[in-house]
């Protein structure tokens, strides 16, 4: 296979060196060049024809967002943003994802060498995945330590009574790479009285609050970052906080959000599998679930558990996904019988949620 050709764009010479060294240590990647600002990057894109850009936000002569907007309009290509773990960094990064960036990784304020080295595997995986993505504007191997891959069993045992509760419908959505924009599209199409929606998006802790606030501004529903013990109500959407698993539990009178500080599942925290398993146990056949664009397979087994519990399940189709990893894995497992374009998912979720539980099978029909 051809190596992924990467151009590193950052005004910091240290960051350019660290990123270049780290990316070059992966045999799948070739760093073809670096640039200290967008104007240099513009010329090097023409000369070197990279497959992927890593792009800093704060740079001289032209800021990263302006450059990204121009790039996605004139020469769309996969871009992975390098962002700071601050509230302002989160806002800028979310705007970059709106403009067409595929993914991002966080640049620490201190100990750059140590933090980057610890994230090498994740950063290289993001770049390789970005090379296989479909960028769209809005309108010698270094041995790395690998964390054990845990299943949802690490947080919540599989219930033997899943699917028996029923009751008022709750919509569950899981997503990862490309998901912030996919979730926006779904929430923008929801009416203010839509059934409650619970959402797990793979996102760092510093980014989930600003992401929820951004979604609240663009949706007729009330959207918030979930809090432990929070009642789940119609017309509201609840987004899992970064670094905590979101579960839906029955407290004897109502469904509530529960936050769990357990280990990463499928190397993610929050994990979609954890959310979906909790829904299978506490909501069962009244669940309507969708798995959207994302890298990896988190959520695929959880969606299968929901389907087996009688819930209605669907996935985003390959053509409209930035990365058809998670939805593709679920579809291949038989966890969903329906794969829909992103712009049709909100309407389908609403129809399924308003369908009487005993009128038809709750697994989405082809």
Write the layout of secondary structure elements.
Layout: E1 4-9, H1 13-24, E2 29-35, H2 38-48, E3 52-56, H3 64-74, E4 79-84, H4 87-99, E5 103-107, H5 112-118, H6 120-131, E6 170-175, H7 179-188, E7 197-201, H8 205-218, E8 222-225, E9 236-239, E10 245-250, E11 255-260, H9 272-282, E12 287-291, H10 300-308, E13 312-316, H11 326-333, E14 339-340, H12 342-353
Parallel strand pairs: 1-2, 1-3, 3-4, 4-5, 6-7, 6-12, 7-9, 8-9, 12-13, 13-14
Antiparallel strand pairs: 10-11
Helix pairs in contact: 1-5, 3-4, 4-8, 7-12, 9-10, 10-11
Organism: Frateuria terrea
Pfam families: CheB_methylest (PF01339), Response_reg (PF00072)
EC number: 3.1.1.61, 3.5.1.44
What are the main properties of this structure?
366 residues, alpha/beta, Rossmann fold, 2 domains, 7-stranded parallel sheet, 5-stranded parallel sheet, 36% helix
Write a structural description.
The structure is a single chain. With 366 residues, the protein is of the alpha/beta class. It has two domains: 128 residues, Response regulator (Rossmann fold), CATH 3.40.50.2300; 193 residues, Methylesterase CheB, C-terminal domain (Rossmann fold, 3-Layer(aba) Sandwich), CATH 3.40.50. The chain has twelve helices and 14 strands. The strands form three sheets. Strands 8-9-7-6-12-13-14 form a seven-stranded parallel β-sheet, with helices on both faces. Strands 2-1-3-4-5 form a five-stranded parallel β-sheet, sandwiched between helices. The protein has a two-stranded antiparallel ribbon with strand order 10-11. Strand 13, helix 11 and strand 14 form a beta-alpha-beta unit. Helix 7 crosses helix 12 and helix 9 runs parallel beside helix 10. The longest helix has 14 residues. The relative contact order is 0.11. About 2% of the residues have low confidence. It comes from Frateuria terrea. Its main location: cytoplasm. Belongs to the CheB family. It is found in: Cytoplasm. GO terms for molecular function: phosphorelay response regulator activity; protein-glutamate methylesterase activity; protein-glutamine glutaminase activity.
């Amino acid at each position: 296979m051809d190596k992924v050709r990467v151009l590193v764009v950052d005004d910091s010479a240290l960051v350019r060196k660290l990123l270049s060294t780290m990316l070059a240590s992966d045999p799948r990647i070739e760093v073809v060049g670096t640039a200290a600002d967008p104007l240099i990057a513009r010329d090097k894109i023409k000369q070197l024809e990279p497959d992927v850009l890593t792009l800093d936000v704060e740079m001289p002569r032209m800021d990263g967002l302006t450059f990204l907007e121009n790039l996605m309009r004139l020469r769309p290509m996969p871009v992975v943003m390098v962002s700071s773990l601050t509230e302002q960094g989160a806002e800028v990064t979310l705007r970059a994802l709106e403009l067409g960036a595929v993914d991002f990784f966080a640049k620490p304020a201190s100990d750059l060498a140590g933090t980057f080295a610890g994230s090498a595997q994740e950063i290289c995986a993001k770049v390789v995945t970005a090379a296989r993505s479909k960028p769209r504007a809005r309108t010698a191997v270094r041995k790395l330590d690998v964390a054990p891959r845990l299943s949802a069993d690490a947080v919540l045992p599989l219930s033997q009574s899943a699917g028996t509760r029923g009751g008022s419908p709750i919509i569950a959505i899981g997503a990862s790479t490309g998901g912030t924009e996919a979730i926006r599209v779904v929430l923008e199409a929801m009416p203010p009285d839509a059934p409650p929606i619970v959402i797990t998006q793979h996102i760092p802790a510093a980014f989930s609050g600003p992401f929820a606030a951004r979604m609240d501004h663009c949706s007729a529903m009330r959207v918030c970052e979930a809090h432990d013990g929070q009642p789940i109500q119609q017309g509201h959407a609840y987004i899992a906080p970064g670094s905590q698993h979101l579960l839906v539990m029955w407290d004897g009178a109502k469904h509530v959000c529960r936050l769990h500080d357990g280990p990463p599942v499928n190397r993610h925290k929050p994990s979609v599998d954890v959310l979906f398993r909790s829904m299978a146990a506490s909501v069962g056949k009244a669940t309507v679930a969708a798995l959207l664009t994302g890298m990896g397979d988190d959520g695929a087994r959880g969606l299968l558990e929901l389907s087996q519990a009688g819930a209605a399940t669907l996935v985003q189709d390959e053509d409209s996904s930035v990365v058809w990893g998670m939805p593709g894995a679920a579809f291949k497992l038989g966890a969903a019988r329906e794969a829909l374009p992103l712009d049709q998912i909100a309407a389908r979720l609403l129809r399924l949620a308003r369908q009487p539980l005993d009128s038809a099978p709750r697994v989405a029909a082809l």
